[in-house]
UniProtKB/TrEMBL annotation:
PROSITE patterns: FBOX. Pfam families: F-box (PF00646). This is F-box domain-containing protein. Residues 3-62 form the F-box domain. It comes from the Eukaryota.
Length: 384
């Protein structure tokens, strides 16, 4: 057996090995072995830099070795209240340019940290910018978010703050390259502004869209002629009625993917396959993938719940769903939680629990007891 030392391996192979190592291993543990490995680790240009509580003790050793032009990913976590790591990072690297940076994640405890970073750190075009906070009730002005999108030419933004949008005060530009956006809750009017002012936006994921005045919202939409080029819309905890959803979806006729997780109070409103059929045929003629899940909880379990499953799923057993679209639905009753659910099958919109339940599927109308994961069909389990 031939034994080869690290310094005898080709540089390309060593760099491939470095892809699976953290920055401390590459620059310190390997880089300080010998001069040759020091030079090879210095030339490695796919560094992934993470600054959090676990890396704080060796940060000062690392920063002397880091060449900003070799960093492709940066994560800064303010995961405790003692240190402002974003400002500390700026102190050490504020005059540098991270030309190859593709991914940036900032865990900010307040919006001033984001502003400080934007003011002092220079990056190239970012494929991904993640802005989040572990501190509850933190709001970030939408103008700051727009500045980050513009400054870093961001293509994908995940914004896990409660935004103080101030849409009217925002100075919108039309050269945004943003293609994918993930946010928490927003007002309906803010949703409209977002899809209007990001012409390249293709994917939008949000927790919910809030409507305070249905009549006023519908009136405002009646004057809009703009149609977004959005391809994928996901609302994870949707509280919108079918009437409002129809207005919302009229602005996105090019959707290919549509996914909803509905709040419990919306169960009766959205469990109508005929209304969904009409909406899809008139507003979403290009739709290829449709998923949703809705549920209702009961305080007491009784047998009448079982007989209602058939009536709930009947409107999703027509030719439109089964033959034209080939979309399958399941309605089930979970014994432990006394809960009825209606969802597309398979689905990834909820945890794939294996609770014992009583179900009926739109494809065969047969009632069955099962413990199958809901991200699989009965055919999948049969094949296994």
């Amino acid at each position: 057996m031939v034994h080869a030392s690290l310094d005898s391996l080709p540089v390309e192979l060593l760099h491939r090995i470095f892809d699976f190592c953290d920055i401390q291993t590459v620059l310190i543990s390997i880089g300080y072995v010998c001069r040759q490995l020091y030079a090879i680790s210095n030339s490695y240009n796919r560094l992934k830099f993470k600054y959090d509580s676990s890396s704080e003790h060796y940060f000062k050793r690392i920063y002397r070795r880091v060449r900003p032009e070799n960093v492709i990913s940066l994560i800064i976590n303010n995961d405790d209240t003692k240190n402002d790591r974003i400002r500390q990072f700026v102190t050490f690297f504020g005059t540098c340019r991270f030309a190859l940076m593709a991914s940036l994640t900032l865990n900010c405890s307040d919006h001033t940290q984001l502003e400080h970073f934007l003011k002092h750190v220079e990056c190239g075009s970012l494929n991904l910018l993640v802005i989040k906070s572990d501190t509850p009730n933190i709001k970030t002005n939408w103008t700051i978010a727009l500045r980050a999108i513009t400054q870093f030419q961001v293509r994908k933004l995940e914004f896990y703050h409660d935004l103080d949008y101030q849409i009217g005060a925002a100075q919108w530009l039309f050269q945004y390259k943003l293609e994918h956006l993930t946010i928490l809750k927003c007002l309906f009017q803010e949703y409209v502004a977002i899809i209007q002012h990001f012409p390249n936006l293709r994917t939008l994921v949000m927790r919910d869209c809030i409507v305070h005045n249905n009549e006023g919202t519908m009136g405002a939409l009646s004057h809009l002629t703009y149609a977004s080029a959005l391809k994928s819309l996901i609302i994870e905890q949707c509280s919108l009625s079918m009437i409002v959803l129809e207005s919302l979806l009229s602005l996105t006729p090019t959707l290919l993917t549509l996914k909803f997780g509905f709040e419990e109070q919306m169960f009766d409103s959205i469990c109508d396959g005929y209304s969904w059929k009409r909406l899809i045929e008139t507003k979403l003629t290009s739709l290829e993938q449709f998923e949703f899940i809705a549920f209702r909880s009961f305080s007491d379990a009784n047998n009448t719940h079982f007989t209602s499953l058939k009536s709930i799923i009947t409107s999703f057993q027509t030719g439109f769903w089964l033959k034209e679209k080939h979309w399958t639905f399941t309605c089930d009753y979970i014994f432990r939680s006394n809960q009825i659910r209606l969802y597309t099958t398979p689905t990834k919109l909820t945890n794939s629990n294996q609770a014992i339940r009583y179900e009926i599927m739109s494809t065969d109308g047969i009632h069955r007891f099962t413990q199958r994961p809901i991200n699989k069909t009965s055919d999948d389990c049969t094949e296994e």
